[in-house]
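User: quick one, fold this
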Amino acid sequence: MVKNKRDLVGGQAVYEGVMMRKGIDLAIAVRDPEGHIILKRERLQPFFKKWIKIPLLRGLMILLDSLFWGIKALNYSTSIAFREEDKTNSNWEIGVALILGFALFIGLFIILPLLVIRPIENYISSLIVLRLLEGIVRLGIFILYLFSITKIKEIYRVFQYHGAEHKTVFCYEAGEELTVENCRKYSRFHPRCGTSFLLVVMVVSIIVFAFLGRQPFILRIITRVLLIPVIFSISYEIIRLGSERVNSVFWRILLTPGLWMQHFTTKEPDDLQLEIAIAALKEVTKEGNDSEISY
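Assistant:
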């Protein structure tokens, strides 16, 4: 098992590859169209360094930092995994995609749940019941969304790499040699996964929004958008607390729904995908300089 926090590693699936991160070291392994594994390693300067010890604020800073490097990893993977004619190298295109993604998030998980419960809200006097219904609708939309995108071939492959990342991290944390055979036997469901975080976000939003009272429809949308950083920060602290108490029965029960959700966001990888995850993890855990190599 991992003996201290400095040994903790995390990762992210990218296009035809895996990004692994250990402290300020990051490594990306991507398979190019010819079948070669391309490795890139960087030593980062985290943006949240000044706020790492400040509860609530640190969660938001860490999330922003993870988002920034995650997008960079995705952008790098597309430059390797796709043939020249299929590549998207334009920062402008990536920026537009991020804006559209945020707009989709607001539309699906903020506005749509409010529209669904709006016809019945005048018949329900309890604000707690209303916010609970809103949260249930939001969770239902989230599950339907995850189920739907798994039907997209490219997304399904990314989720396979997500499963490969989890299996490889489990093998590393168990202290076993990083081989395809060893990694294959581990679970693809990991308690520190971002999917668990998103589920906690859904639950925390119900509690936070319950304190807003009855508001005009437009104001409800505005306040919910403005409270997103607060909800994310609280959710991060909950996940952080839970990850430090994984052997506690209470926290295992609390985090179990997040593991269930990983049935959607992780899929069983093949051996070639496990090979990619192993390459990324080996690279990030060894001593060395920033580099890009292939084999």
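User: anything notable?
Assistant: The radius of gyration is 20 Å.
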